[in-house]
UniProtKB/TrEMBL annotation:
Transmembrane segments: none annotated. Pfam families: DAGK_cat (PF00781). Keywords: Kinase, Transferase. The keyword Transferase applies. GO terms for cellular component: plasma membrane. This is Diacylglycerol kinase family enzyme. Belongs to the diacylglycerol/lipid kinase family. One of its GO terms (molecular function) is ATP-dependent diacylglycerol kinase activity. Residues 1-135 form the DAGKc domain.
Length: 308
């Protein structure tokens, strides 16, 4: 079985020793080629080459950003049974996608499960989301969460480790001093439904949870799932009280979505559009992608095979 291992050498907590151990672990079962990313977007190029070369499996060793790039490279020509299966070996700071799949959040435990699945010929088809022409595995966002990711990425570029406390501190600073909490910019549009105006931020989910705070899931849309369409959480107010109430709801266990007078929920949507009356920060799977005034989203059922 031909396989390519795509590794991000800059992923948080990664090391040459860990990568070498994982390469040896898979080499006994696979005809394995090792490919290390050298720049942003490189995993897209490598995965596209693997798909064109008719590899059987691509293993993505890195964080959610590496996985997202690998998925987009594999699906450059669209979903197909001929596309190599994807195996995820998490070695980033949060690893939301891997944990949503039920994998351990560290590479050694994930390696054991992936090896067992490879030996048993076991895989799982999952649906993905698309934002314009780019796939996402678990979440996209416009507004405050993307603004936070933008700042954290700048800190990472200076060598700062993106631990949960950094995200919390940046989120508090952005909320109280930077983000516009007075003038809502977003409108949500869905076929067959009236537009929802006056939104300050919006998350679009392909699965649950939205993210993790350390080991604790943060989940505004617990009914979201890889086998369904897209879920949306949005806020009509950025006042302190409704935002705190929404955050409390996200941290509570259970399968009920966050609700409230200032909350907008959408479940299992096949298509939707978010428009903004000014450029607004945008991210996919935790990677900041600049500012947008419009993003079109759609659900892509059974888009890719996951070794699990």
């Amino acid at each position: 079985m031909r396989a390519m291992l795509i590794a991000n050498p800059k992923a948080t907590s990664t090391s040459r020793r860990v990568r070498d151990l994982l390469f040896r672990a898979f080499s006994g079962d696979l005809d394995l080629e090792f490919a290390e990313t050298a720049h942003r977007g490189h995993a897209v190029e490598l995965a596209r080459e693997a798909a064109a070369g008719k590899y059987d499996v691509v293993l993505a060793l890195g964080g959610d950003g590496t996985v997202n790039e690998t998925v987009n490279g594999l699906l450059a020509a669209g979903p197909s049974a001929d596309v190599p299966a994807l195996a995820v070996l998490p070695i980033g700071s949060t690893n939301v996608f891997a944990r949503a799949l039920g994998l351990p959040a560290e590479p050694i435990g994930a390696t054991r499960l992936v090896l067992d699945a490879l030996r048993a010929g076991r895989h799982r088809w999952i649906g993905l989301g698309m934002a314009d022409d780019r796939y996402f595995t678990f979440c996209a966002g416009l507004g405050l969460d993307a603004e936070v990711i933008r700042v954290v990425e700048r800190r990472r570029d200076t060598g700062r480790r993106p631990d949960p406390t950094l995200y919390v501190r940046v989120a508090l600073r952005e909320f109280f001093t930077r983000t516009d909490r007075v003038h809502p910019a977003l409108t949500l549009e869905r076929p067959g439904h009236p537009p929802v105006t006056g939104l300050f931020l919006s998350f679009v989910a392909n699965t649950a949870p939205w993210t993790y705070l350390g080991r604790h899931p943060v989940d505004p849309f617990p009914r979201a799932h890889f086998s369904r369409g897209l879920d949306v959480f949005a806020m009509r107010s950025m006042a302190v009280r409704p935002v705190l109430a929404a955050l409390a709801g996200m941290l509570l266990p259970g399968d009920r979505p966050v609700r409230g007078r200032d909350v907008v929920n959408v479940h299992d949507a096949s298509r939707l559009t978010l428009r903004a009356d000014r450029p607004i920060a945008f991210h996919l799977d935790g990677d900041y992608l600049g500012e947008r005034t419009e993003v079109q989203f759609r659900s892509v059922p059974r888009a890719i095979r996951i070794v699990i």
